[in-house]
Amino acid sequence: FMQQEYSEALKMYFKSSSKKGFRPEINLKIARCYYYLKNYTQAVQYYEKIKPVNLNPSKTDLFYYAEALASLSCYKMAIEIYQRCLLAEPDNEMLMKKIWRLHNIQFLYDDSIHFAIKEVPINTDFSELAAYPYQEGIVFLSNIEITGGVQKLNAINNTPFYRLFYSDIINDSLGNIISYEKPVLFDKIFKNKYHMGSVAFYQHGQKMVFTATAEKNKSGNNRTLQLFFSEKTENNWHITASFPFNSFKFSNSNPSITEDGKFLLFSSDKSGGYGGKDIYSSIFENGSWSEPENLGDEINSREDELYPYLMKETLYFSSNGHPGLGGLDVFKAEYHNGNYSAVENMGYPLNSSYDDFGIYIDTLNTSGYITSNRKNGGYNDNLYAFEMDLQTYPLKVEGVLKYIEHNWLDSSNLKTLSDVSLFLIDNERGIKVTETVADSNGNFSFIVPYFSKYKLQVVGPEIEGLVSFEVAKHKKVNDKYEIVIVHDDFKSTITNPTAND
After folding, report:
1. Beta strand pairing call for 177-180 and 163-171
2. Torsion (CA) 206, 210, 213, 217 in degrees, nearest 10
3. How many C-beta atoms lie closer than 10 Å to residue 114's C-beta?
4. Cβ atoms within 10 Å of 68's Cβ, excluding its own
5. Chain centre to alpha carbon of residue 486
6. Cα separation of 14 and 428, whole Å?
7. DSSP 361-392
8. Residue-wise DSSP of 302-354
C-alpha cells in the first residue's frame, strides 16, 4: 500500500480479511485502494462497511468517501458527508463551495445544448488520453499492449506503461473528420523505459515539450515525472534539453507552451504549493527558463490542478478541488493585466461526474479534444472530440435583401430590394417551412425551426428564383445576413447561390 501498488495491496488485504481476527479497520484500507484506483463503486461499498462497527474514519477518508459519492452522481449523500467533513474543518472554503455547487448542480447543465461530444474511434480497452494535433493527425498517450519484447507494468494497477502514438485524420472535401487511421508509435526516441506523459507542440510543430519518467528514483520511492524539450530536424526528433527545474524529489508534468516557446505552464507537486498538484508558469528569456511561479490560490486549490492549456487569453485546466460534477472537471479563467478572473466550470457535457481532463481547443475556439473515463470509470480513459458554441434552434434570423444589376459592377452599386416575399425551403425534405416579406428598406426576419440545409425562394413582381442559405454551425456575435441578388442572373427560376453572411 505504501509503495502505491494498490492492485497487489488489495489481494493481500482480501487474503487477510478471510482469516480469523480480521480487523474492520482493513476495510478503510480497501476503500482507499479502490479510491486510488478510481473504482468509486467499490470504494463507496467499503466505506459503507465501516458504519455498522462504529469506526470513526479520518477527515481524509470522509473526504474520499464524499468525493467517491459525487463521482457516482450520488449528490445528496455526498453533501451529507461533505457536511461531516465541514464540522471537522468549519473554515474550509473548498468544502463550502463543493456543498453549494452540489445544491445547485443544475446550473452546470444550462449550456449543454451548445456542445456536442463524441468518442474518438481509436479508443481501445486500454487507456487513450491527452490528444494534441500534429501535422495531419493527433499525437496521444496509450498504454495498449505492444506485441514483442518484455512487457513492463505499472505497479499501481498492473497495466502497461504509457507510450506516445500518432494517428492520421481523414477529412472530407469540406474539412470534416471522417475517420482516423490505425495508430502507430510516434517516434523511437520517446520510447522511455517507464511512462511517457503528455506533450505540447510549438513553432509550427517543429519543437515540442513532453513529460517522461525520470531515469532514477528519489531515495527509494517512486520515480518522478520530468519535462524535456525536443526539436525535429529533417524527419527525426532529437531531445535538446531538460527543464532546469526538474527534480528527483517531485514531479513536473502536463506541459502547455505558447507558439513562440517563451511561456510554459505545467503541473507540479513540489512543496510550498496550495495542495497536491498545482499549476506553475515559467518564462524563457535571455536564453534560460525563469524560476517557476505558482499561479496562486485563484487557480490552485487544496487538491489537484492538472493539464493546463492556454488558448489566447484563456487558461483551461482540470481540478478536483474546485467544485464541479465530480472527479476532475475542466475549468477556465480569463487572463487580464497579469491576473486571472474567477474560475468557471465548463459544465456538462464537457464535464461529467467522472474524470475529465487533458483539454485541447483549436485556434477558432470551436472544437477540440478532451479525455474522460466516463464510459467505464477507473483508469480506462478515452479520447473524445467536441464542438462548442453550437447554434441552437429555433433560431431567429434577421437580414437585409439587396440587388445589383450586373455581375461586373462593384459593391458601391448595391441597391435595396424591397417588398418581395421570401420562402425558407428545407432543401433535404423539399418543403417550405416558413415565409416572410422584405419591407420597404429590404429588411426581413424569420424563424429557422431546426437544423437542415436550406434555400431561400425570393418572389417579386419582376423577379423569382432560389438563393442558397446556410446557417453557421457555430454561434456568431452578429447573425445579421446580407443577401445579394445579381439581377442579370436572377430571372425566372434560375438558381444563383449568392447569399453572404
Report:
1. antiparallel
2. 100
3. 15
4. 27
5. 45
6. 61
7. E-TTSSEEEEEE-TTT-TT--EEEEEE-SB--
8. SSBEEEEEEETTEEEEEESSS-SSSSSEEEEEEEETTEE---EE--TTTS-SS
Q: Which amino acid appears at position 171 of this protein?
A: N
Q: Are 193 and 154 in contact (CB under 8 A)?
A: no
DSSP secondary structure letter of residue 489: T
Rounded distance, CA 457 to CA 446, Å? 13
Please state the φ and ψ torsions of residue 95, each to the nearest 5 degrees.
Answer: -65, -40
Q: Which amino acid is at 89?
A: E
The β-bridge partners of 17 are: none
Residues 6+ apart with CB under 8 A from 197: 130, 141, 162, 210, 211, 212, 213, 225, 253, 254
What are 253's three cell numbers? 508534468
Distance between CA 296 and CA 309 in Å, rounded? Answer: 16
The 10s digit of each residue's pLDDT in 131-150 is: 999 999 999 999 988 765 55
What local confidence, expressed as pLDDT, does residue 451 receive?
77
β pairing state of 159-160 and 153-154: antiparallel
Q: Are 402 and 417 in contact (CB under 8 A)?
A: yes
Give the integer Cα–Cα distance in Å for 215 and 226: 10
Q: CA 380, CA 403: separation in Å to the nearest integer?
A: 58
Q: What are phi and psi of 304, to 5 degrees?
A: -105, 135
**Whose CA is closest to 145, among 157, 156, 125, 160?**
160
Burial 293-308 (b: 16+ CB within 10 A, else e): ebbeeebbbebbbbbb
Bridge partners (DSSP) of residue 367 are 387
Residue bearing cell 416575399: 421
Three-state SS letters, 123-138: CCCCCEEEEEEECCEE
| CB-based burial label for 501 (10 Å; 0-12, 13-18, 19+) | middle
Condensed to tens digits (0 to 9), the pLDDT of residues 376-423 reads: 888 899 999 998 876 767 888 888 988 877 665 566 678 888 888 999
- The grid coordinates listed for 176 are 470534416
What is the SS3 assignment for 470? coil
